[in-house]
Amino acid sequence: MKNLKKIDLFNFNLEIGKVRPYIPLYFETFGQPVGSAPVVLVNHALTGNSTITGENGWWNDLIGENKTINTNDFTVIAFNIPGNGYDNVFGNLISDYKDFTILDVARIFWEGLFHLNIDELFTVIGGSLGGAIAWEMAAQHPTKIKNLIPIATDWKATDWVIANVLIQDKILNNSDDPIADARLHAMLLYRTPQSINQRFKRKQNNVFEVENWLTNHGSKLKNRFRLSSYKLMNHLLKTNDITKNRKDFVTVASQIQANIHIVSVDTDYFFIAEENRETYQNLKKIKENVFYHEIQSIHGHDAFLIEFNQLATFLSPIFNTQNTHKYVNA
């Protein structure tokens, strides 16, 4: 059962110059009380939310008691991106979704942390959209994070990502069944032809099984997600760029003191591994504490939600408390 807490933010200045009079920031905490243990911030992906572990937790395989991110040892926090609708308060949805950027979301998350008297983070981790927010958080406060773990993501939106965001936006604004139809397109970005062909093998019972699978994904998302939320989360994906109004990537990244663990998926057709390998090679020239891990999977982008054993292998040394120096929040 979700146990949402709320932080009230007032007169928040958006990147585009507008002022948002009020933003409610909902979140959940897991494990140790705030202020008593190192803090791990988990950023959710496009259709995700703050329930990362426990009942209906979407990352139960990695987070919990005696798991890779052990809630016996850490305070784990997850914010809901404002407007994702998880609080079920209709008035908190955001209709002017193009006013917001990932830079705004990262600042909102930092404001939430400062409200909780958290000035440093042991780790910021997130997949896909959540990982992009993690990159921006590190760019905004380069000395306040010990471990930065962006998974299946990038520090910038490539032309390929921007193009697909446009297609999603067109579907969401023009389809008679926008959430379901947009989800059908998105699922083909999140998986691979090999994964789908291997799973369904052209089987059919009146209709092809792959068609049923896609239709069910669309229906399930429509039942739990709001249209305005989908529009906002999709739009955020194209606003990711830690060099915007800053200097070049190497200069910006050189200020980030965190250990950077880049995790990509070899078959990711959305945030492609080649981009992450290039990022790693550029970072190696200026940082010693940068590491690259690659999930090997047939499943594409969604492998970060499927290949838990590989992910746990990469993450376990980071979260092994025997290797963790004593850490106290400022």
Automatic annotation (TrEMBL):
Gene3D superfamilies: alpha/beta hydrolase. Residues 38-158 form the AB hydrolase-1 domain. SUPFAM superfamilies: alpha/beta-Hydrolases. InterPro entries: AB_hydrolase_1, AB_hydrolase_fold, HAT_MetX-like. It comes from the Bacteria. Keywords: Transferase. The active site is at residues 128, 268, 301. This is Homoserine O-acetyltransferase. GO terms for molecular function: homoserine O-acetyltransferase activity. GO terms for biological process: homoserine metabolic process; methionine biosynthetic process.
